[in-house]
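Researcher: We're teaching a course module on how sequence relates to structure. For the next exercise, students receive a sequence and then see the predicted structure as tokens, so they can try to spot secondary structure elements on their own. Here is the exercise chain.
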Amino acid sequence: MVEVVSALYRPLVAIVAVAALTVPSGAEAARVKVAAATASSSYASSEDANYDPKQVIDGKAGTAWVEGDPGGGLGAWIELDLGGSKSVQRIDVWGGLWASSEYWARGNRPKSLEVKFSDGSIQQFPLSDSQKIQTLTLPKTVETSTIRLKIEAMYNGSTWQDTGISEIAVYDSSPDDTVRASLVTASTFTPPDGDGSYDASQVADGLVDTSWCEGNKTGDGTGEWLELQLGGQKNISSVTLVNGLAASLTLFMKANSATAATLTFSDGSTAPIVIKKSPSPQTIPFPAKSTSSVKITFTTVAKGKEFDDLCISEAYFK
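Model: And here is the predicted structure for the students to work with:
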């Protein structure tokens, strides 16, 4: 694991390299703000890399908790403190080291998880050996203040025998005032490379360090589009965007970012928006609409210093 240093902070990850992808089911459930995370052990951190359990609740795929137990992770656990009792209905897990597809393959990944709740009840969940978000859907809602995930079996990595989890998201049964896409399509996307993939679904995964990047090599991203299906008719009046490669300011300056766009709603009406050249989340209001989809066509673009591709990290509505 000594070699896993700056790689844990790479900005882009591989999910599945296709132009259109659905996000996990139950997208309208509200994400719980986890108060704290503890673990049975953690791999020793260094000046350049941190493997603390809080890495699974930082909203980034490029950071990870890595257990430090002997035996490759068997029996190691991580526990989330929900900050009070929540009605949990779904848990999303990013198993393995998502810093890149290479690092994901080199480290151990969870194969089976035992999930224990504060009332003492336990449920078992198998995980597939694929770099995708694994959704643990509970048979029925569980009232709990903590969630402990214990590694019951692992898929072996090619290099490191320590098991990592990059992110965990918990959803309760309360309605979410944020409207996220159930399906995202795009005009084009950049093919995956050693750092991961750049497909359309990455704007709706809730992570600021994953991005859609268009792949039209004849232009700078002007005229390219994202279309977000909202899973039914929704009343919305603002869009929140995380512009460019938002994992860091250095990366943001390297790629193209949007400065203006046109929103097209399911009834054919449109609304122009102005976008700040900033990697921070920005909420942009528009006249209230009832719509089942929003197509975002980027009309002006600011050039990056290194990559002539437009990137967007997140997009959702209220």
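Model: If you want an answer key for the exercise: The chain has two domains: 6-11+29-174, 183-317. The radius of gyration is 20 Å.
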